[in-house]
């Protein structure tokens, strides 16, 4: 049985996702000699026209915006084109499987190995490079800097663990992390993980001559997250959620243009569909908790519905839905990427595999 097909191709895709979760870039087909005005061409043309109008409006707004009397002390760099900034350069590097090239070129160009400014996906940002930059950021959280996500993330996820800062963020972390600690791992997660893993191997690995590891691992981690967080076991229900979730993922790091034809628009629609399904699951779980047919400590969902802080404050239903969506997102790409790379390295290093197997 071959564990994977084309590791090199997988690694190239993985480097793209690991940098910015952005790996599906499509280009229009070449124009034919005889053009036929089909509905799809008309929609694409109208979308392009609307996009150009938005960009033109932003250019005019930026040029007419009053400037401050004293210039800001910004790091070296360039904001590039209005609104688009240097997003296209980043996407080109990402498409080539070398997203780090974008950083290296700007570090060399601006002569600043520590920090440079740029504009990505409609947001003006400062990019901090190297160990010193990481130390500064992680050592000054909620002091000199605060966690920030692009507007696309904030709009898609809503009020949740990753978008809340300050005291609100601390309170939300406390509500969630009490159920994600070592005690819960030993008490609930190990047995469930073992059951899901055995079922997954039986269904997707045994008897197969070839397995596309990365895609299979994405399905596995999503199944596992649904089981651990919501006790969801129905394969059809999980498949329905996974379909919408994959559409949702493609718009997380995107230019937030919310009109038909854009990935962000599709992601917003997918997020709404996921929230609708999660709301139905929550409704059923509330009934089960009231009837005491399930335990408040059964899984994360029951815990969030049944638990309050010392002041009697509960998470709202919207906050619970947003946080479950966040945890599904957090456990999806990163875990599947790590598992895939571990399997690749074990396949290439049989002596290490033998030691692990023992």
From TrEMBL:
State the Pfam families in the record: p450
Q: Which molecular function term from Gene Ontology is one that the record holds?
A: iron ion binding
GO BP of this protein: sterol metabolic process
Is-annotated flag, keyword Methyltransferase?
Answer: no
UniProt KW keywords: Iron, Membrane, Metal-binding, Transmembrane, Transmembrane helix
Does the keyword field hold Transmembrane?
A: yes
Q: Which InterPro entries match?
A: Cyt_P450, Cyt_P450_sf
Give TM regions. 36-60
Protein's UniProt name? Cytochrome P450
Recorded source organism is: Escallonia herrerae
